Each structure stands twice: as structure tokens, then as C-alpha cells.
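Appendix B. Raw example, untouched.
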Amino acid sequence: MKPPEFEYLAVRTTDEAVSQLAKHKTAKILAGGQSLTPMLNFRLVHPDMLIDINPVKELDFIKEQNGGVRIGALTRHRLIESSKLVHDKLPILAVAANEVGHLAIRTRGTFGGSLAHADPAAEFPMIALLLDAQIKARSASGERTIKAKDFLVSYLQSAVAEGELVTEVYLPGLPAHSGWGFHELCRRPGDFAIAAVAAIVTMDGGKISDARISMAGVGATALRAPAAETLLKGKAPDAALFKQAAEKAAEASDPSNDVHASSDFRRHLVNELTQRALKDAVERAAKA
């Protein structure tokens, strides 16, 4: 199909973008366009205007801040994947970026766009949730910061309000003596994950002092596994503990049945991938 009729406007500043969003209530932001274009062609959205923010250079950056990383909303997946700063500070983010679609998609797709699109099977929302990211959104009336746990609302629905534009994301660095693990299963390279699990483990004196687990493809949004995280804290890591935590993570998932996999199979994947991610995280924590 072809997209519905719309006006097109390229803007050069964030102020201009939010000003136009305030004037055009059904406008959509055009950044990478990797999700918006097919939605337009299938007529799932009917904007009266596309506001192209690609000329807004102030939204394209990767910077270090307080041991973490600030990423502009217009930053391409490929730049995140190849950034030395990201590799040094948040290697799990670089690994996740490498799993996003194909190279052509990563070259055009944007970090802010992926988060705002809130696809439950996408890698970046899951990593933002894992890292307790803070997302800045700006409108004509001001700016606010939204925690990742509040940002992801439902299937393809984020907390970005009418007239708001995601401008940047802050991702805190990993604590000392921490390691990470990331595993996903796709039908083919570049496909959305049937299920994915990411984990961060912090060690202290041979025991787990903190643990985080996030999942994708098994709910209406990316999910955390709080019961599994609580179970891990204060215990010495071993295969039996990982198995118990993985069972808790599978219970926290809420997968659906579709043509790609049944809900039972997705829960099985969460169980298996969680054990692998935790094992990797502990091994990396030991090296750290």
C-alpha cells in the first residue's frame, strides 16, 4: 500500500521541532523511519505532517557523563554499535546494538526512535530497562525526565505525550565488580527476537550483591524479573541458583502465542537464556 497524504517539514533545531509538534496535533517525527515508513504504508498511522528532525545535529551525540553514557535521540544504531565509549562503558549496549536488524537498518535507525516506538521484542528498550535509563522528553512547555520503568507503557506505546519529542537518554555505568550477559534467539539473523534476556550481576566477596534481569519478546513491553533478582542477592553463584532464578524469570514473563512461537516455548527460552546470561555475567564480574 501507499501512505496517506501528509505534509512534510524538515526542521533544524529542537525548538523548531517541538514548536511544530504543538501546532500539528497528529504530526509524527521522522528520524530513521525504519518503523514509521511501514506503519504509514499499512495506514496504521495517519499524520497530517511528518516533521523531519534529521537536520537537528544537536540530537546526534554520544558523551560520557558521571561514569555513564548520554546518547542523543538521533544517534544511529550503527554509531552505538561501533562507539569506543560505549564499548568501554556499556559493552552490553554495543552487543545489543549489533543484534538490531541488518546493517542497512542500523545505519538509519535511531536510538530515541527505537525507545519511543516501544516494540516489546526490540533490544534497546530491554537494555534501557536493564540499565535503569533516564529518558528526556521535551515539548513547547518544557522538559521532563522519565525513568525507563515508567517509559514503556504497553505494546508500541511509550510515555511520550502529545507534543513531546525524545531528545536524549542517560544510561548509568555498571557498578564496580559487575559483569553482564546477553542472549537472544531469532529465527534468522536480523529478525526480531522470539525471546531475549539480558542480565547484570555485581559481586562482593564471592556473593551476588546485586542482580538485574530484563527480557524482551515475552510481554507487551520489555520486562524485568524482580523475584529472580531478589532471589539472587546475597547468595554464592552456582548452576542450581541460576536455575532457580531462571524459573522465577520465566514466571515473570507474559508471552503470547503467534506464528513464530507458542507462549510455552517462549517461557522455556526465558528459562534457558536467563541461565546462560547469568553464567556469563558472573564470569565477567570475576574478570572485572
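End of appendix B.
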